[in-house]
Amino acid sequence: MRIRSLVLLSVLSFFVIACGHDHENGIDPEHAPGYLQHHPIDPESGLILVDTLGYPGNHPTDPVTGEVDPQPVRDWEYIDQSNRPFGTSELRGKVYVADFFFTSCPTICPKVKSQMLRLEERFKDNPDFQLVSFTVDPKRDTPERMTEYAQKLGIEDMDRWRFIQGDKFEIYDLDEDYLSVALENDAAPGGFDHSGYLVLVDREGYVRAYASGLVEEEVDHLMEDIQLLLDDEDGSAR
């Protein structure tokens, strides 16, 4: 298990992707807003490439060349709010956004879910887009309870937005792949810590961008990143 304390720090790491871009659209890192820091930097201009996505996260590095070897999210399969098996195999070929929540959350979850609802509305006509919400409280968040929660949010398409219940300890490890924090904490409101990040994953299972679900401006920008991946139907951006 990777060191949890490095997870949030590592999201600021980034590197260049071999795909087309316009250097004139770059931004000086010193003047770039925080939500652009996961974009790669052009080695020639030193500018952040706004129309290109990197691979944020804590990836292995070749000890000789220093090159970063991006790794996809590990394979997983659990059950959704309709008690159906669901996992990474069903997400291959899809662009999706993941978050971590629990239905009794008294603090950030309603705000984060309001931003997820914005994504659902924005991309509802694209069959290649999905939303995935992992509960950090699987003991209480049964499929039935998550279905009720989804219905209260007004979600009509239970195929597009999956609420996932899995093994607690596996989920707490899986959060690191999604650049998030999910753990029990008696001192936290509701008894759980979770980051509120919305994490964007490409068609091949690689994390490509993220945003705070508490900041509307960041989610606005995440929508642009989502569109970049949806437009990249053959995965050539990798």
UniProtKB/TrEMBL annotation:
This is SCO family protein. Residues 38-231 form the Thioredoxin domain. Belongs to the SCO1/2 family. The keyword Iron does not apply. Gene3D superfamilies: Glutaredoxin. Keywords: Copper, Disulfide bond, Metal-binding, Signal. The lineage of its organism: Bacteria, Pseudomonadati, Bacteroidota, Saprospiria, Saprospirales. Cu cation binds at C105, C109, H194. One of its GO terms (molecular function) is metal ion binding. The keyword Signal applies. Disulfide bonds join C105-C109. Residues 1-20 form the signal peptide. PROSITE patterns: PROKAR_LIPOPROTEIN (PS51257), THIOREDOXIN_2 (PS51352).
